Amino acid sequence: MSRRPESERSDWTDLDLLTREEAHGRLLAEIADTDVRLAGLGESDAAERELLESRLRALREAAEDLIDHAQGNGG
Amino acid sequence: MPLQPWMKLLSTDDHLIEPPRLWSDRLPARYREAGPRIVEQARGEGRAPAEVWVYEDRIYPYIGLNAVAGKSPEEFGLEPTRYDEMIPGCYDPKARIRDMDLDGVWGALCFPSFPGFSGHVFLDGKDRELALLCVQAWNDFVLDEWCATAPGRLIPLAIMPMWDVDLCVAEVHRVAAKGAKAISFPENPSPRGLPSFHTDYWDPFFTALEETDLPLSLHFGTSGQAPKTAPEAPFAVTITLFGCNAMYATGDLLFSPVLHKHPKLKIGLSEGGIGWIPYLLERADGTWERHRFYQNVNQSVRPSELFHRHFHGCFIDDRFGVEVRHHVGIDKITWECDYPHSDSYWPKSRAYAAEVLADVPDEEVHKIVELNTRRIYNLPA
Predict the structure, then answer these.
(1) CATH class label, B10-17+86-377
(2) Interfacial B residues in 82-111 facing A (CB < 8 Å)
(3) H-type alpha helices, chain B
(4) What is the pTM of this model?
(5) What residue ranges do the domains of chain B occupy?
(6) What digits encode the pLDDT tens for the residues A35-63?
(7) Coiled-coil regions in this chain (chain B) (predicted)?
(8) Chain A partners within 8 Å of B47 (Cβ)
(9) What are the chain A neighbours of B98 within 8 Å (beta carbons)?
């Protein structure tokens, strides 16, 4: 069984994948940003508030799922 | 805000990670051992083993950033990875749709990963019958499983058995009949030991693409020749110069017979940005004006005219390219996301696109993020 030399692996095939930990960190950063945007909304921004609250719920669920899966795998 | 909420972002350059049973579920029993399958490979004491593909007797790992949480960018590194370290959207189409929703992205054209972005790993196959079955299995997975999960959102791209042009022609027609929307191919076949674009070898293949109206998607790096300046040069040099591969492919095709013999052929330059295009076209036209008379090149059509007839490009964050978009051609620009690679802006791709396109009129933004891709790839709204 041979390992292919790196010189032959010259496209991006196996590089640069977004891992769970990096993705989780990005989700936490986006949750924090969204929290700040929500806090800055006035009472007249009901539609925007609804959109952001919906996004926040989806972001939190996605972040929790990544953590749950990592814990389920002993991570 | 030029990027309006009702505009659907369509990415012409994303990637999928092949699930572990893609080939074992599809290959005949006699080929399951030699066909691609996942095995574990040690990564050192106290660490779960990496999961790598074995195809015939060769190993192909997936590589990702090592655990980055709590680390500074100075400590990041790349290493072989395993499925439970990837985000599920890499290999699970339902999870991919969820991640696209979080990202504000409607549609995605996904290139292969283990087979190489143009499927060229199957060129390595010692058993050509197995290699053909592997190519067809990848295409069937994409058409029947991956894209069938969300028709109209996951856009089917197919790979070719590129060691035999007649097999390519047959596969183009087979996947077109099943709903494929694009064909991935090496940006330059010559370094892969295949006939170049300057021969007539690929003519039946290009004719098949014209007949089926399928664009040829050339992802940068698929020639197998990464830009490298010196053995000691850091990988940053290669990353910086990778867009030059798209320039090479464009120059190569513009001065080849291909576009003159195949007037309906559509060519997509995947990844690599767009800001270089006006410069290269000026340079190509200047070369053609001064040097065409003593060379075996077309004498009547300027390279820039050929480009505008045949090519389109894409960008993630090419602010200069957006600034010079009228020199590129508004109708020639598409948007890309590059999920699940870490240089994508997930889960902020839409917000980032809005920022990059902030000074562009609405109707031009709509063409760039959605309408051009619908037109070129035949995607009904």
Answers:
(1) alpha beta
(2) 84-88, 90, 98-99, 101-102
(3) 93-103, 128-140, 165-178, 203-212, 235-241, 243-254, 258-261, 277-291, 303-310, 319-323, 325-328, 349-356, 362-366, 372-377
(4) 0.92
(5) 10-17+86-377, 23-85
(6) 999 999 988 889 999 999 999 999 999 99
(7) none
(8) none
(9) 62
